[in-house]
User: Which sequence fits this backbone?
């Protein structure tokens, strides 16, 4: 059965002009009986979009439609879909597929499946190229589609599917809650969500930023303490204070040792990295001695699983969490991409559909 949904999106066709997006028609995912089809109404603009378009993470498949913070209305469901019906609001994040059969998938760790499929710049098993959310629609297996609580507006929900989940998952997994001191390094699209969620989860929140203009913003988001990282000694008053330090930083100073950050952690504290710079921008250099004074753990996190995403959405609905967003029509995706790359955005762009009427 055809729904009549035409798949068109704003695509990069020339990697030398990463933000020059052209409206194209493309072949969507082959519809299967576990799939949900969504007419897109909103899509967040992620730093991942910029890294991918600008080739910072490697060569892209062309033409390429990016965007993996997607929300819209369900237009079609397969016969095996249980939790969605036509007309429901639904969201899709940065992952759109996995093998479903491995140990990781069977233990709710599908976000670490070795055969995972990214929402864009990837390939489905039948060879169709995966295209993202700067577009009219998307199809996804029901495991990677999320229900939206009525209390959350679509424009607020959109960026939760990557930026929100990317920080919520490690906060939850590593014990964020009452009695914990949580640091957030970098107050951007990811970092501002980390402040909002850590505070909502009951932690005492420390926000670290190199941008003086963001200090007051971090306070308004709920941070209990705000610290400028311009001073090389910023970490000294906080040695041994933090239980968790979530790093969303896209760039680290080459002349600042990693131990500056690790020293702020209490015994067996955790440094969790979720920021992903370009491939030519590594983490700061570290020596084995840097791990000894407090026995710290260093780790990472990759988006989140479906259970965590639904839990995050329920928390946002219960606590009235609203991201700081700027809305632009999808036809202005170029301006949004350039605004993210230059650091102009405060703190997440959300594109609203204007390609064609959405049923």
Assistant:
């Amino acid at each position: 059965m055809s729904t009549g949904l035409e798949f068109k999106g704003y695509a990069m066709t020339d990697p030398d002009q990463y933000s020059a997006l052209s409206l194209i028609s493309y072949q969507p995912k082959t519809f299967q009986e576990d799939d949900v089809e969504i007419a897109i109404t909103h899509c967040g603009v992620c730093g991942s979009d910029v890294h991918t378009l600008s080739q910072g993470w490697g060569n892209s498949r062309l033409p390429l439609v990016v965007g993996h913070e997607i929300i819209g209305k369900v237009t079609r469901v397969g016969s095996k879909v249980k939790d969605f019906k036509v007309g429901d609001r639904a969201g899709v994040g940065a992952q759109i597929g996995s093998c479903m059969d491995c140990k990781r998938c069977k233990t709710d760790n599908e976000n670490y499946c070795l055969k995972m499929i990214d929402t864009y710049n990837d390939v489905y098993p039948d060879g169709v190229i995966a295209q993202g959310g700067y577009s009219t629609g998307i199809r996804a297996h029901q495991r990677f589609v999320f229900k939206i609580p009525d209390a959350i507006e679509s424009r607020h929900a959109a960026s939760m599917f990557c930026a929100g989940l990317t920080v919520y998952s490690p906060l939850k997994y590593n014990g964020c809650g009452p009695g914990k001191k949580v640091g957030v390094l970098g107050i951007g699209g990811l970092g501002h969500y980390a402040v909002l969620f850590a505070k909502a989860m009951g932690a005492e929140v420390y926000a670290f930023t190199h941008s003086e203009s963001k200090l007051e913003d971090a306070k308004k988001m709920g941070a209990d303490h705000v610290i400028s990282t311009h001073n090389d000694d910023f970490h000294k008053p906080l040695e041994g204070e933090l239980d968790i330090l979530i790093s969303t930083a896209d760039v680290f100073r080459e002349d600042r040792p990693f131990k500056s950050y690790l020293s702020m952690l209490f015994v067996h504290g955790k440094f969790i990295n979720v920021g992903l710079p370009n491939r030519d921008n590594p983490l700061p250099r570290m020596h084995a001695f840097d791990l000894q004074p407090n026995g710290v753990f260093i780790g990472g996190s990759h988006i989140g699983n479906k259970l965590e995403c639904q839990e995050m959405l329920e928390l946002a609905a219960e606590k009235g969490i609203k991201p700081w967003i700027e809305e632009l029509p999808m036809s202005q995706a170029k301006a949004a991409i350039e605004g993210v790359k230059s650091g102009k955005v405060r703190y997440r762009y959300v594109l609203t559909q204007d390609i064609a009427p959405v049923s």
